[in-house]
From TrEMBL:
Keywords: Carbohydrate metabolism, Cellulose degradation, Glycosidase, Hydrolase, Polysaccharide degradation. The keyword Hydrolase applies. It catalyses: Endohydrolysis of (1->4)-beta-D-glucosidic linkages in cellulose, lichenin and cereal beta-D-glucans. One of its GO terms (biological process) is cellulose catabolic process. This is Endoglucanase. Coiled coil: none annotated. One of its GO terms (molecular function) is cellulase activity. The keyword Hydrolase applies. Gene3D superfamilies: 1.50.10.10. Residues 2-339 form the Glycoside hydrolase family domain. It is an enzyme of class 3 (hydrolase). It comes from the Eukaryota.
Length: 349
């Protein structure tokens, strides 16, 4: 319902319904994704707060058991609520493998290794997939599991190293597996809407895989060619630098960063006057005058990354062009990992 309004969060009066998945209305994708997040968080807190870490991991296992036992997609159970914007287009199988992989990493429990071995082939382990997104976890799972092969020479995970190489090679111009598209200015281009989500997630995976390779003396194999971790790091850095302003338009696609950045961001709270500047209520339909205004957003949404330019490096700084000017958490989230990598390298070097 809130899509029918253009209003500030302080003024929102549309229904804020809460939905759940259950045994009768399963949602293996959203449940297994939750289990993956809990398991990953348990690793973060393992040293600083062991009891909390244990609680996170135990909960992850319970949630994963629910996801696996009651299989089905959340967009089948909640179709009218999540579709068409957030249907599970890739299905729930990739999330089950993603969840099991994170719990295996966090727990080193061999039952999850057995689960991955027994179920991997039906959950996407054999698929070469060339995008990593909020919906499709296959490429990320391959990279995650390749760490076990690289570190421990776990032969069961050799397959995942090969698939990770295929994903990486698809991004490197000149290899036999190359299939990506780049703009004239050098930006990875996959889709006309919110393209930077694929750029930030690809950069994140490139750097994660580079870290795994460099820690274990490995290389990415692309047919008869091999590429060291430095090549992957360099490719990712070009994408990060492009987003931050090293591009033909000299435009930073992170709002509030650099000398030139998007001023007409497709974001309600940013585009409407604040409650301090305009204390009176702005009703559902009255906000559209601000959506359609040519004026810059009065509230700078510092740090948000927008959808980005088209395949010719052109960017319309237009609030109504949501394909290019809308920010999203799934654009920003992988970018945090990428800049953390380079920040760490700067510190250590």
């Amino acid at each position: 319902m809130d899509h029918q309004c253009w209003e500030r969060p302080e003024d929102m009066d549309t229904p804020r319904n809460v939905y759940k998945v259950s045994t009768q209305n399963p949602g293996s994708d959203v449940a297994a994704e939750t289990a993956a997040a809990l398991a990953a968080a348990s690793i973060v807190f393992k040293d600083s707060d062991p009891s909390y870490s244990k609680q996170l991991l135990q909960t992850a296992m319970k949630v994963f058991d629910f996801a696996d036992r009651y299989r089905g997609s959340y967009s089948d159970s909640l179709n009218s609520v999540v579709c068409p914007f957030y249907c599970s287009y890739s299905g729930y199988q990739d999330e089950l493998l993603w969840g099991a992989s994170w719990i295996h990493r966090a727990s080193q429990n061999r039952s999850y290794l057995a689960y991955i071995q027994s179920n991997g082939h039906t959950l996407g382990a054999d698929d070469d997939d060339y995008s990593f997104s909020w919906d499709d976890k296959r490429a990320g799972t391959k990279v995650l599991l390749s760490k076990d092969f690289l570190e421990k020479n776990t032969q069961e995970f050799q397959l995942y190293k090969a698939h990770s190489d295929n994903y990486i090679c698809s991004l490197i111009p000149g290899t036999s597996s190359f299939q990506a598209q780049y703009t004239p200015g050098g930006l990875l281009y996959k889709a006309s809407a919110s393209n930077l989500q694929y750029v930030t997630s690809s950069a994140f995976l490139l750097l994660t895989y580079a870290k795994y390779l460099s820690s274990n003396g490995g290389v990415a194999s692309c047919g008869t060619s091999t590429f060291p971790a430095e090549k992957l790091t360099s490719l990712a850095k070009k994408q990060v630098d492009y987003i931050l302003g090293n591009n033909p338009a000299k435009m930073s696609y992170m709002v509030g960063f650099g000398q030139k950045y998007p001023l007409h961001v497709h974001h309600r709270g940013s585009s409407l006057p604040s409650v301090h500047a305009h204390p009176d209520h702005i009703a559902c339909n009255n906000g559209f005058q601000y959506l359609n205004s040519g004026s810059p957003n009065p509230n700078v949404l510092v740090g948000a990354i927008v959808g980005g330019p088209d395949n010719k490096d052109n960017f319309a700084d237009d609030r109504n062009n949501y394909q290019q000017s809308e920010p999203a958490t799934y654009i920003n989230a992988p970018f945090v990992g990428a800049v953390a990598f380079f920040s760490g390298k700067t510190t250590t070097n």
